[in-house]
From TrEMBL:
InterPro entries: cNMP-bd_dom, cNMP-bd_dom_sf, Env_Response_Regulators, HTH_CRP, RmlC-like_jellyroll, WH-like_DNA-bd_sf, WH_DNA-bd_sf. It comes from Methyloceanibacter caenitepidi. The keyword Coiled coil does not apply. One of its GO terms (molecular function) is DNA binding. It holds the Pfam family cNMP_binding. This is cAMP-binding proteins-catabolite gene activator and regulatory subunit of cAMP-dependent protein kinases. It comes from the Bacteria. The lineage of its organism: Bacteria, Pseudomonadati, Pseudomonadota, Alphaproteobacteria, Hyphomicrobiales. Keywords: DNA-binding, Kinase, Transcription, Transcription regulation, Transferase.
Length: 230
């Protein structure tokens, strides 16, 4: 769908079909829809930056985002890419603290934003809503632990296979493509670009993945699982 075809109602329909919002009850979905607005971001445009004050919670409708956090050497480490159904921004908002990570649109991206004032009002009216946002924080923390566990895998082949499955799961698009460049993919896995290219080349020849310009697609998830377990 072209980005100019989106409206808030259709965007919310997508988010109610997958991800955190889809797991909430109809009444809660209705309340959250009442404080939502549609946002459009161009490729590489920041949604927010580390150190900024929280400006709400975001749900990803179409496109993808990349999440990075500042390293001690002053550079940013790109830790994760995510697609449709991904929600973020809750941790800093409910901690009343600055953002810990920077998030940019990896491509033209459509989102829904829940305003901080609206969230505060809904939680005041119904404190039980805290549990719904805790569920979001739990899901994102689980993803963070998966990323840490991936980096702890010593075997390069196993680490790359594991990360490809993780990124594919985070991009539930109909076509299955994950839009990420090889340099960014190498950084995600803490391997050199030549090492990544050699490994991906073997995976392509084995029929496990397919490559395109600035994108990659998992073709045989079971085959990648066999590498991880082998």
């Amino acid at each position: 769908m072209k980005k100019d075809a989106w409206n808030l109602e259709r965007a919310l329909e997508v988010l109610c079909s997958r991800g955190w919002l889809s797991e909430r009850g109809k009444e809660i979905q209705k309340r959250l829809a009442g404080i939502a607005r549609l946002r459009i971001f161009e490729a590489h445009e920041p949604i927010y930056l580390a150190g900024q004050n929280p400006n709400g919670v975001f749900g990803l409708v179409e496109g993808s985002v990349k999440l990075a956090f500042p390293r001690n050497d002053g550079e940013d480490y790109i830790a994760h890419y995510a697609g449709t159904g991904f929600w973020f921004g809750d941790l800093a908002l409910f901690s009343n603290a600055p953002r810990l990570v920077s998030i940019h649109a990896a491509e033209p991206t459509t989102m829904v934003q829940l305003s901080p004032q609206g969230i505060a009002r809904l939680v005041r009216e119904d404190p039980k809503l805290h549990a719904d946002f805790y569920a979001l924080t739990y899901a994102n923390f689980r993803t963070a632990l998966s990323i840490i566990a991936n980096l702890a895998i010593v075997s390069v082949d196993k680490r790359i296979a594991d990360r490809l499955l993780l990124e594919a799961a985070a991009h539930p698009k109909a076509d299955g493509w994950v839009h990420v460049s090889q340099p960014d993919l190498a950084q995600l896995m803490a391997v050199s670009v030549p090492t990544l290219r050699r490994t991906i080349g073997r995976f392509v020849r084995a029929g496990l993945v397919e490559q395109g310009y600035g994108r990659i697609k998992v073709v045989d998830a079971n085959g990648l699982q066999n590498i991880i377990r082998g």
